[in-house]
Each structure stands twice: as C-alpha cells, then as structure tokens.
Amino acid sequence: MFERFTHAARDAVVRAREEARALRQSPIGTQHVLIALLADPAGPIATAPAISSRKVDARFVRAEVERRVGPGPEPVVPGDSTEAQDAAALKAIGIDLDAVRRAIEENFGPGALQLPLAAAPKRRGLLRRSRPRARTSGHIPFSPRSKKVLELSLREAIRLKHNYIAPEHLMLGILREGQGMAVQILTAAGVDPEQLRDDVTRSLGNQAA
C-alpha cells in the first residue's frame, strides 16, 4: 500500500508552488511541476537520457513557460489565509508544506525557496495591450491537471508495486496525464514521451535493485 512521498518528491511539490509564485502565475500547472522536477541537475529527471540528450533543463522550461504564458501583474505574496486549504489537502497525502520549507532552508540556507521574480513584460506600444492576468497574490491553487498528476503519480506507484512516491512517479504522472503544458513543452523540444517513460521506469528499477 501507498505510504508516503519521499523527501525529494515533497520538495518538488513545494518547489512547483514557488516556481508559480516567482513567475507570478496561477494556478500551479503541470509546467511548474516539471520545472521543479528538473531543478536538481543531478536528479533522476534531469539526467534521464530522453531529457538530457535534448538539453532540456529547468531554465529552458521556465523560459518556455514565460514565453507561452507570461507573468502575472504583480508579485505573489505568501501567507494568504486561504493557502491553508491546499496545505491541508497536501498534508493529507503526506506533504507538510511548512516542514518541507524548514528542511530545505536547513539544508540550503534561509531564503533558498525565494526565487527571483520574473521581470515585468516589456510594453509593446501604446496601442498594444497585454492579455489580462488573474491576480496571483496570496493563495495559489493547484490546477485540475496538476492535481490529476498527483493522483496519477499514486496510481503509477501502485502499478509498480511501490509503497512510496518519488520524483520519478511524479514524472510518470505528468506523462500519463499527457495533455498539460509540461508534455507540450517536452514534445515541442523533441523529447520522446515513451523513451522518457522508459528512462524513468528504469531509474526506479535501478533504485530497487
């Protein structure tokens, strides 16, 4: 039976929220989860041959997300009272946001999750207006697709008879969901989803060996 997220998987979920916050975007989408999974250049996702052979990394995906979506109108301010709703939901599946933040700062120093804010978009002229953005201050919810990815990562763990969820399971969840911006960016960059699925599954097998 499923027992818990690994520390690395928990870190990735928290990092996804911080990526959305830094990019001034809401909700937290599959693309933010992908950036978080690629944040560790020595991690199992960044080093998967299907990814590394195409030189796809967190910086590349972040730039693609900015190009496709653009930043919101203002910085996202943490600490909104409604954030407790998502925090409680995540805690129910073994992710304590506050505990993970503390652990990351203990290992990497205070402010390790405070990513630089995305630069404001350049004005294109007096008669050209940028598309309106939803306000993103305070609580940032998970999109239906990213919630589905969390659910599918659990299903992948069960399918593989694992009693934990690691970053690889999150990646498998992204691939299994198949319609989010994360997969769109990967396929546009020439990443073969089937090869990536094989790479990630092999990585999990190597850990179990």
UniProtKB/TrEMBL annotation:
Residues 2-206 form the Clp R domain. This is Clp R domain-containing protein. It holds the Pfam family Clp_N. The keyword Repeat applies. Keywords: Repeat. SUPFAM superfamilies: Double Clp-N motif.
